[in-house]
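Form P-L/3: holo structure prediction, ligand zinc ion.
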Amino acid sequence: MARRALNSRVRGPAPGRSVTGTVTRVHSRHARVALDDGEETRCALRKTLFREEDQFTKPVAVGDRVRVTSFGPRTAVVEEVLPRRGYLARLQVETGKEQIMVANVDQVLITVALAEPAFRPRIADRILVAAERGGFDGIIALTKSDLIDDRGPFDEMAALWSDMGYHTLFTSLVTGEGIGELKELLVGSTTVLAGQSGVGKSSLLNAVEPALELRSQTVSDKWGKGRHTTSSTALIPLKEGGFVVDTPGIRSWGIAGLEPSDIAIFFRDLAPYIESCKYSECTHDHEPDCAVKDAVAAGKIDDRRYESYLRIIMGMEEED
Ligand SMILES: Nc1nc2c(ncn2[C@@H]2O[C@H](COP(=O)(O)OP(=O)(O)OP(=O)(O)O)[C@@H](O)[C@H]2O)c(=O)[nH]1
Ligand SMILES: [Zn+2]
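OUTPUT (holo model):
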């Protein structure tokens, strides 16, 4: 997804003052920090933060809460990373270290288009697994609601997610449906954005907060140029508090490293049954005496969710 123009003022806190803030972008020797008083500033990283034996690839991550000191204009220094509430990371195979994508995440906003591109609910189920694993909430925005005539089948899917406790809402840029509701959900929280290319993530964010100026292109432009790639992660501050962040590829690395028998625990609707399976390593696929399969047969678990589950354990990647 496109980035907001970097138009924030670069100004440090008063000399010698110790303040706290949230890291919005990380470079090799410095970071940008949104100070709690509202300024966004460039900060050097204190050398003592770099420790060879660290389990992480970098000492500071986007989303980190940090303590900063300033020793004059433009010479602010990150002194300390405050304890993390949790983080989303991927394993760097060469070093065995964790690369933190975002720290202190509250929720993931999964955007699914009802049309253009075609409705693909399984992508949402897959990202929900990553959210459950990371320990944060999932919000599902069913967007481009203006493009469909019969809402029946989508209502059913929305009810399925809602009943599991995921806030699910219909949104549209054209009619304005759900935009106010979405804004309320984002303010004050750190939200990871997810969803396939072209579903309307940038458009939604721009509607929620026009000042973000996220670039949004037409479907034909984008598809003509092939796959959209985004490299580094940045936290975007919302005017009324909170942040949004785009972490490319969450639905693949978000569940990387899990064994098939570890997946069902992250499906809220499957999880209650897994204790009753005959085999502790049951993958709820081919094994006999499987409580999950029985629940599907009895109509207690929705077929579509079970199908999503099977796709994941069979390692079938949802294409972009
Ligand atoms: N009809 C309709 N079109 C929409 C809506 N929201 C977005 N679009 C269109 O869908 C296209 C893609 O929107 P974007 O916001 O760029 O999608 P994105 O998810 O940010 O895409 P990436 O940047 O590739 O991740 C644009 O042409 C938008 O104008 C909507 O609610 N209704
Ligand atoms: Zn089973």
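COMMENT: The longest strand covers residues 18-26.
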